[in-house]
Write a structure and sequence with these properties.
heterodimer, A: mainly beta, Immunoglobulin-like, 10-stranded mixed sheet, 6-stranded antiparallel sheet, 30 strands, elongated, B: mainly beta, 1 helix, globular
């Protein structure tokens, strides 16, 4: 018994060492979009929240970044391109990476515009104000509420320290009588009208200078760009659970050969137009195989193309599902429809 | 080859539901053409017609294709249409033009949806009149040639994006938009046409980069000659057209940077010094379905 008791520390040490040596490392990857299109050569930074260590990399031609060999833990992801004055709409996106996990974190960029300070003549002496306009792409946004937070560590929950009236048709807002200090300025426009975390369809944005400084006797004027919270993109192939709704199949070229590196997409509307799809896979592998999770199921118009974002281009492989004349397919919730074939051919060739 | 030649052929009568039903277009009746098919005489369309990638629809001279007004999805626009993903050939003659129009006794814009050429192999139209559609012709990601034809009383006369489209010798009149386009990935060629009496002559919606050739046309007597969409920030080229007014009055009513500095500019200079000779493409047959349009001519 005493012999066994003496061995316990050694066993614990061995387990600990073994755990360190074998803990699988994961991947953090994602796509960077600006006005709905992928952006190449944007600097993306991964910050280890425990150590503060940073890793940086650039997006590829499809706007994709990838950090491999990432240890489990908490991280922040941020993107910025100073030369093009664009920055991730949410400055820091936090995530927790489980051992061996591959996490997909897409970021949307907005224009970066600094703060302009103007005399604040109408307010109480010794105080300042924050004013500005809320925009989505190039259009002003009405009905958005601007909230001020004093602490950046709490995740900007709740109504904040102060908030504006909803913006009008000119997108303008103002918050007056502010003491001289730093404020985290956050904008939300809720489609649902509820409180809590922003949900699909809501608009969200943060001031370009974050936090923004309020100075006595001055008005801090800014343009805040917001982006729409969209649904989570299709998860990686390996993440699909057996009880999810999806279609599975293969993408072929006109000669019947598998096509690798194309995206399979699904729209809920028959008129695809130039809109972004409702669902999208990651690029097909060598065998042209895809699996496209489809949320709640329903009727989808399905196709495949080489590029992500923007309209199909001349020469780009593109095709729609031909199993029905209008390319539509019904996928009942909770079912996986297998055996779907999509044939692509080059546009305008 | 399948040949449909008869008077008052109703395509596959007995579709799942009748006119006026509000539903998903996926459930509307479809005529799926997967081989070569020839239409002649009078053809009535009461559903969606789709010409597959392998299909080829040929419409013979003198054919009348009349679309029933069926607003299946309740959006106020008729849902009968022809979508071409393979080949489409509608070659009439000056003596025997082809009509694509509304079957309604009192036809109106958007009675039916469109001739839709989408990711198609090829479309050819000559001596054709298209009237009372939402879009007379839409061309996307396809090659199409349209000559000596008429587009009247549609919301959009001719609409296109990323299209290898040549439109020439044609009349585009009394539409909401004579030409509506997004140039995007491929420019088009629009020359030698009469674009007049529309609410808007040329509507450049977005992503137009000034590469399309839109010249030697008469673009006159439209309520608004040119309109740029809210996101059209690039200039567009409309040189060498005849605008029907003195040079000082050409830009009157343009919706471009002359009104909104955030928009691009419609560049019209150099101006053409005289009208282009664009003859009416064909004589109107002595037929009530054609006269319904003639009566509304201005």
């Amino acid at each position: 018994m005493s012999k066994l008791r003496n061995m316990v520390p050694l066993l614990l040490l061995a387990l600990a060492l073994g755990g360190c040596a074998s803990a699988p490392k994961g991947v953090v990857a994602g796509r960077i979009l600006y006005n709905g299109a992928p952006v190449a050569e944007v600097s993306v930074t991964l910050v280890d929240q425990a150590t503060g260590r940073e890793r940086s990399g650039l997006t590829d031609g499809e706007g994709v970044y990838r950090f491999a060999g990432v240890e489990s833990g908490g991280y922040l992801v941020r993107a910025r391109d100073k030369s093009r004055a664009i920055v991730s709409a949410r400055r820091d996106t936090d995530l927790y990476l489980a051992p061996g996990e591959e996490k997909w974190v897409g970021l949307k960029l907005v224009s970066w515009e600094g703060v302009i300070y103007r005399p604040y003549t109408t307010g109480t002496p010794g105080f300042g104000a924050i004013t500005g306009v809320v925009k989505q792409e190039r259009k002003v946004v009405s009905g958005a509420v601007v909230s001020l937070y004093l602490d950046g560590e709490e995740g900007f929950k709740g109504p904040g320290f102060r908030h504006s009236f909803p913006t009008g048709s000119d997108g303008a807002f103002f918050i007056e009588e502010l003491a001289e200090t730093d404020y985290y300025v956050v904008v939300r426009k809720r489609a649902s009208g509820t409180s809590g975390p922003v949900e699909r369809g809501d608009l969200y944005g943060e001031a370009a200078v974050f936090p923004a400084k309020v100075k006595s006797g001055l008005e801090s004027q800014m343009v805040i760009h917001v982006v729409e919270k969209t649904k989570t993109r299709a998860p990686h192939l390996a993440q699909l659970e057996g009880d999810e709704t999806a279609i599975k199949g293969v993408v072929l070229d006109m000669e019947g050969r598998p096509v690798a590196g194309v995206y399979v997409f699904a729209y809920r509307d028959r008129i695809v137009g130039h809109k972004m799809p409702d669902y999208l896979t990651r690029p097909t592998g060598e065998g042209g195989v895809f699996i496209l999770p489809l949320g709640d199921g329903g009727l989808f118009y399905v196709g495949a193309r080489q590029h992500y974002g923007g309209s199909p281009r001349p020469g780009e492989p593109y095709g729609m599902y031909d199993g029905s004349p209008d390319h539509g397919i019904r996928v009942p919730e909770g079912q996986v429809v297998d055996g779907i074939t999509i044939t692509v051919r080059k546009v305008l060739e | 080859m399948r040949h449909l030649a008869a008077i008052a052929i109703v395509l596959l009568a007995g579709c799942a539901s009748g006119p006026g039903r509000v539903g998903d277009l996926h459930d509307m009746g479809v005529r799926y053409i997967t081989g070569r098919e020839v239409w002649s005489g009078e053809v009535r369309v009461d559903r969606i017609v789709i010409v597959s990638k392998e299909g080829h629809l040929v419409v013979e001279p003198g054919t009348k294709v009349l679309f029933e007004r069926i607003d299946w999805d309740g959006d106020g626009i008729g849902d009968c249409e022809i979508t071409v993903e393979g080949r489409f050939t509608a070659r009439g003659t000056a003596e025997k033009p082809i009509l694509f129009g509304s079957a309604a006794a009192q036809p109106a814009k958007a009675d039916w949806k469109y001739l839709h050429v989408n990711f198609a192999e090829k479309a050819e139209m000559e001596y054709v009149r298209v009237s009372h559609a939402f879009s007379g012709l839409q061309v996307h990601y396809s090659q199409a040639t349209v000559m000596n034809s008429e587009f009247r009383h549609n919301v959009d006369g001719v609409r296109f994006s990323t299209a290898d489209l040549t439109l020439t010798g044609s009349w585009l009149k009394q539409n909401t938009h004579g030409i509506r386009f997004e140039e995007r990935g491929h420019p088009a060629t629009i020359t030698g046409n009469e674009i007049s009496l529309n609410d808007v002559g040329i509507f450049a919606v977005t992503r137009c980069f000034g590469r399309s050739k839109i010249s030697s046309n008469n673009i006159r007597d439209n309520l608004r000659g040119v309109k740029l969409g809210l996101e059209q920030v690039e200039d567009i080229g409309l040189e060498f057209n005849w605008w029907g007014v003195d040079p000082d009055g050409v830009r009157a009513g343009f919706m471009d940077d002359t009104i909104d500095p955030d928009l691009g500019r419609a560049i019209v200079e150099p101006l053409r010094s005289e009208p282009v000779a664009v003859q009416r493409p064909f004589e109107i047959p002595d037929d009530p379905d054609w006269h319904a349009v003639v009566a509304a001519d201005r």
